[in-house]
Amino acid sequence: MVLVIDPQIAGISGDMILSSLVHLGANKSKIINGVSISQNFLHGSKIKKIDFKKVNKHGIQATSLVLQLDEHHHERKGIEIQNCIKKTADKIGLSESAKTFVTNSITTLIKAESKIHGVPIDSVHFHEASSIDTVIDIVGTAIALDDLRYFDKEIITTPVSVGSGTVTFSHGMVSNPAGAILEIFDKSKIMILGSNIKDELTTPTGASILVNLADKCSEFYPMMNVKSIGYGAGQKNFEGFSNVLKVVHGESAKNTKLDSVTILETNVDDVTGEVLAHVIDKMMANGAKDVSLIPTITKKGRPSHIISVICDSDSVNQLLNLLVSETGTLGVRIRTSDRFLVPRQIITMKVRINNKVFTIRCKVAKTNSDHKQFKIEYDDIKSISEKLLLSFKQTEELIKAEVKKQLK
Predict the structure, then answer these.
(1) Which residues of 272-404 form beta strands (DSSP E)?
(2) What is the extent of the structural domain holding 306?
(3) Which residue of 82, 135, 149, 322 lies most exposed, with the fewest beta carbons within 10 A?
(4) For residue range 291-339, what is the model confidence (pLDDT) as tens digits?
(5) pLDDT score at 28
């Protein structure tokens, strides 16, 4: 099963993710009763009213958090909010996964503020996040995820819309996204994107929740059968789009998984075949997943090649530099692409060919309950063919016959 959080239009806030989970079917009473206990651990904060109601946001029916508070604090130390969250989590008996989630979420928020303001973690003061509603958002989300049993699901987020323009808060006016948002997403591998909306679409609490929930970020939905959809409404209204977070629960395709790769491409028209062969070897030796050469015709009828390199994001800089230095190209196109993979494993097995035993490596993929696809490593076939003085094709056929017997 898979859960897709989709903040690519309206962004994300704590109450939006909580409301979307209620829309998906999380027990409303359990959430309200659970978060109400937090009042006992945060002096000067009382929940006068809390509920969830149906609203219409620009044509989309969604669920919205209704919250009325009686508070007398406009500034608190971050550790006060943290202690309240931890005590509430223990008191209401959250699962260990949920406890880890709430602890990490508030810690992420505190660390971001600590880094921005250059103060120790225990000296961080919250202003906008000083209210008990921060506790309600984080703890309520944990209760909902526990109730729906989503902590053991794969959770994917699409890129996060953050808006644009400027925002004004306790420290004055800053450009949007503000520093806290950027610090929270730093090194998270979750992509953010701006828009023409001159407002804050993603809040620090929403960002902290998201980075501690999502297993990965993808521009596209995975291959899945949709089971249920939740719409969590934000408090603001905008012209032109629904201020709604969409969360989709589905069943992922059994025989595929999704990952993301980076593709480097360049056109070269003045490189010899020997250099191209060397480039392939050099790229593969330095972390490329695959390298392709595509013959083409470019300007003025010049015969040329497109060099296409598939790699992980961690290998981009090294392979980019190699591509430039080895080919002399003056430009490289870079893009990110999602891909579906059939799960596979590389196994080692022994095969008997012409009364001799050899060890081979074999990549095996299970496409359905009755059939397994496999591919024998090229180097192993080549080595055995040379030792037995057989053709490559004949050796491959003999090995395949042995592998089929063992994989039955």
Answers:
(1) 290-297, 303-311, 333-341, 344-353, 356-368, 371-376
(2) 258-341
(3) 149
(4) 999 999 998 899 999 999 999 888 999 999 999 999 999 999 999 888 8
(5) 95
pTM reported for the whole predicted model:
0.72
How is residue 113 written in tokens? 């503020």
Question: Distance (Å, rounded) from C-alpha 135 to C-alpha 76?
Answer: 13
Amino acid identity of 254? K
Largest CA distance in the chain: 87
Per-residue pLDDT tens digits for 142-182: 999 999 999 999 999 999 999 998 877 666 788 888 888 99
Same domain for 77 and 136? yes
Residue 210 CB coordination number (10 Å): 27
What is the rounded average pLDDT of the residues 85-99? 95
Separation CA 220–CA 285 (nearest Å): 30
**Block residue for tokens 């909580």:** 18
Residues 109, 211, single domain; the answer is yes
- The one-character DSSP state at 354 is T
Show the CA angle centred on residue 214, arms to residues 208 and 215, nearest 5°: 135
How would you class 74 by CB atoms within 10 Å of its CB: exposed for 0-12, middle for 13-18, buried for 19 or more? Answer: exposed
Last residue of a domain, one of 255, 290, 314: 255
- Which band of pLDDT confidence, cut at 50, 70 and 90, is reported for residue 43? confident
Rounded Cα distance, 116 and 125, in Å? 12
Q: Does one domain contain both 108 and 206?
A: yes
348 plus 333 within the same structural domain? no
Tell me: cis bond preceding 7? Omega within 30 of 0 counts. no
Please identify, among 319, 341, 363, the residue that sits at the C-terminal boundary of a domain: 341
Which among 349, 344, 406, 342 has a CA at the least distance from the CA of 380?
349
Same domain, 180 and 327: no
Mean pLDDT of the chain: 91
Same domain, 397 and 327: no
The whole-number pLDDT of residue 77 equals: 85
What's the token pair of residue 228?
Answer: 């249920």
Model pLDDT, residue 260: 81
DSSP type of residue 287: T
How many structural domains does the chain have? 3
